[in-house]
Design a protein that fits this description.
This protein has about 325 residues and is α/β, with parallel strands linked by helices. The protein has 2 domains: about 5-190, Aminopeptidase (3-Layer(aba) Sandwich), CATH 3.40.630.10; about 195-320, Immunoglobulin-like (Sandwich), CATH 2.60.40.1120. It has 7 helices and 11 strands. Strands 1-4-2-3 form a 4-stranded mixed beta sheet, sandwiched between helices. Strands 5, 7, 10 and 11 form a 4-stranded mixed beta sheet that branches. Strand 2, helix 3 (about 100-110) and strand 3 (about 130-135) form a beta-alpha-beta unit. Helix 3 (about 100-110) runs antiparallel to helix 6. It is globular. InterPro entries: CarboxyPept-like_regulatory, CARBOXYPEPT_ZN_2, Peptidase_M14, Peptidase_M14_domain.
Length: about 325
């Protein structure tokens, strides 16, 4: 997507390092504060650009993404908002996949000759080798990268690529030279982890069933798409993948992610369940949780228990309204 905010871009009459007018759309909304938020209610008018992106995420299977900004030089990773259960008492907010997100951010920043400097924009930004946790940088509500990770099953980081908010066009060649290796290497990371399909005992692909890794379950459980496919970004190591189908015991599968991907592909692991489960309705989307602050009422639970509790509630919800 070339630009999510073409009206804002057109509003910038001339290049300027600090000009802020182009930040908003034509209705004067900041689109990176316009998405549903998992930590607090974001009671704003959802803008057409935001709705279009949400619908797009709803109809395709996205696994990895990045949104490109200007005004700083850093790779920022989720969460942008948070509660004590995600670490805000320590001025940070971490996802269950924090190791993967730090790896993704470092993959990009370490290949950008200016981003990896300690303070390239001479600002009060305490990044480590060009990466920073979004909440630690500054908390925000309604951001796109948190939305993508929680509701769209898509790992996204925010890439700030220029100290100048709106640089001159003459600088484009240098931007390309500084970022091309980072962009290419980042795209390759869609091939880390494990992927496959979930079948019943008759070989029928099962859509909309929960596929999660034990010990890193998401507040909104990740599910198979309409083809029964699942994708889990993981670093090398051994994991237990848990498949949950309503009315059946969880099915556990052990996987070992090798240190190097083979032929630019994640580990392929199809999962055959020992029962017949012909689902009579194939959903158009794997967005399976209500767009409300999912973390809000779970602040008192530990980081280990809150996803399991919510997993039970979402599974029950799915069974009742399937």
């Amino acid at each position: 997507m070339p630009s999510m905010n073409p009206d804002g871009f057109e509003a910038v009459q001339k290049p300027d390092c600090f000009y802020n007018k182009g930040r908003h759309n034509s209705n004067y909304y900041d689109l990176n504060r316009n998405f549903p938020d998992a930590f607090e209610f974001n009671d704003v008018s959802r803008q057409p650009e935001t709705v279009a992106v949400m619908k797009w995420l709803n109809t395709e299977t996205f696994v990895l993404s990045a949104n490109l900004h200007g005004g700083a030089l850093v790779a920022s990773y989720p969460f942008d908002n948070g509660v004590p259960a995600t670490g805000t008492l320590y001025s940070r907010s971490l996802t269950p996949d924090d190791d993967v997100f730090q790896y993704l951010a470092h993959t990009y920043a370490s290949r950008n000759p200016t981003m990896k400097e300690r303070n390239p924009c001479k600002a009060k930004l305490e990044s480590q080798s060009g990466i920073i946790n979004g909440y630690f940088w500054y908390p925000l509500r309604g951001g796109m990268q948190d939305y993508n990770y929680i509701w769209a099953q898509c790992f996204e980081i925010t890439l700030e690529l220029s100290c100048c908010k709106y640089p001159r066009k003459e600088m484009l060649p240098s931007f390309w030279n500084n970022n091309k290796d980072s962009l290419i290497e980042y795209i390759k990371q869609v091939h880390i982890g494990v992927k496959g399909q979930v079948f019943d005992q008759n070989g029928t692909p099962l859509p909309n069933v929960i596929v999660e890794v034990q010990d890193r379950k998401h507040i909104c459980p990740y599910r198979t798409n309409k083809f029964g496919e699942y994708y889990l970004l993981l670093l090398p190591g051994s994991y237990v993948v848990e498949v949950i189908v309503p009315g059946h015991d969880p099915h556990l599968t052990k996987v070992t992610i090798p240190s190097k991907s083979q032929n630019f592909s994640a580990l392929k692991k199809d999962i055959l369940l020992p029962f017949r489960e012909q689902l009579d309705h194939i959903p158009e989307s794997h967005l399976s949780c209500p767009m409300i602050p999912l973390y809000k009422d779970l602040q008192g639970h530990s980081a280990a228990t809150k996803p399991s509790l919510f997993l039970f509630l979402v599974t029950l919800f799915h069974m009742l309204f399937k």
